[in-house]
């Protein structure tokens, strides 16, 4: 397979949008944590505490999603530099590593979404318990 200088550059828009989405998720989580902390301080609710614990796990995942996404972009830039220097074999491996880092970031994003759905299910369960009483 022949890899040119423009091949890694093709990932720039995708990775940039992905990092923007990750940052938006992080900001939404930060606001939610602040509001739940206030709510927990006044109610000492077990449900709210469970949500906070869930958010702690999600924060770690989002941090790692961002780290692997940034590492992927760094790898693409480094790959372009290596290809520019004329080392096509090393460039191929560097690009492959960048793709692997991007896949890890996406896998973490999938896991974070699964945990997010679990948190929403907790809220729905609580709503069902409240309406059943």
Automatic annotation (TrEMBL):
Residues that span the membrane, as ranges: 12-33, 67-87, 93-110
Q: Which UniProt keywords apply?
A: Membrane, Transmembrane, Transmembrane helix
Q: Name one Pfam family in it.
A: DUF2721
Organism domain of life: Bacteria
Q: What is this protein called?
A: Uncharacterized protein DUF2721
């Amino acid at each position: 397979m022949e890899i040119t200088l423009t091949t890694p550059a093709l990932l720039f828009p995708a990775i940039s949008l992905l990092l923007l989405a990750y940052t938006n998720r992080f900001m939404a989580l930060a606001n939610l944590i602040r509001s739940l902390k206030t709510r927990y301080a006044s109610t000492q609710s077990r449900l709210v505490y469970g949500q906070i614990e869930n958010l702690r796990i999600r924060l770690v995942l989002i941090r790692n999603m961002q780290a692997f996404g940034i590492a992927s972009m760094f790898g693409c830039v480094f790959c372009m530099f290596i290809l520019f220097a004329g080392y096509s074999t090393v460039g191929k491996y560097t690009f492959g590593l960048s793709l692997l880092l991007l896949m890890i970031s996406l896998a973490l994003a999938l896991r974070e979404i699964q945990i997010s759905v679990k948190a929403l299910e907790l809220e729905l369960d609580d709503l069902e318990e409240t309406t059943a009483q």
